[in-house]
Design goal:
By secondary structure, the chain is mainly α. 73% of the residues lie in helices and 7% in strands. It contains 7 helices and 3 strands. The protein is globular.
Length: 168
């Protein structure tokens, strides 16, 4: 199939609209649970990867170590995580997910799974596999293309300057 501008626009819109609904529902869940998106991402990283140092957590969240520390402070105050010094090297502190934090992640993820089960209920098993294979292939292509063709920030800056400086 030839990739053309119309197909790209339709695909972008489909992804954006799906993402908007999933994001909105996710935000409602997080608000109900009393945590922010960055806090949930912190809990999820600990759930998926186990105890992490602030530096490793920052890498997983794509944030500065100071930001990861701020997140840890709030989550620790709420009884969702705890920081434990390494027994072999006291300079190393790892954040550990507590039972309350683990249960919070599971409640949120189970609600996400339940929603997707509803969305996919009308599809056959073969269609499920096809959707999953297609999405995995798309993710792979998106990640590879992103590395090969980074965002052209200089071009965006130039357009932005023209928009700001040009009279309306």
């Amino acid at each position: 199939m030839e990739v053309n501008e119309e197909l790209s626009r339709e695909l972008e819109e489909a992804i954006r609209r799906s993402n908007t609904v999933i994001y909105r529902r996710g935000q409602a869940l997080l608000a109900e649970m009393g945590i922010s998106n960055p806090q949930f991402n912190t809990l999820l990283a600990l759930y998926e990867f186990g105890p992490l140092t602030m530096g490793d957590l920052g890498k997983h969240l794509f944030t500065a170590c100071s930001t990861a520390t701020d997140l840890a402070d709030r989550l620790e105050r709420d009884g969702l995580v705890e920081r434990i010094r390494d027994s072999k090297d006291r300079r190393i502190v790892r954040m550990h997910l507590l039972t309350k934090g683990k249960k919070m992640v599971e409640v949120i993820m189970n609600e996400r799974y339940r929603f997707l089960e509803e969305v996919l209920a009308g599809y056959t098993a073969d269609e499920h596999r096809l959707i999953l294979e297609s999405l995995k292939h798309l993710i792979d292509r998106v990640e590879r293309t992103d590395k090969t063709y980074p965002v052209e920030l200089e071009a965006v800056r130039n357009i932005k300057k023209k928009l700001i400086l040009s009279p309306s």
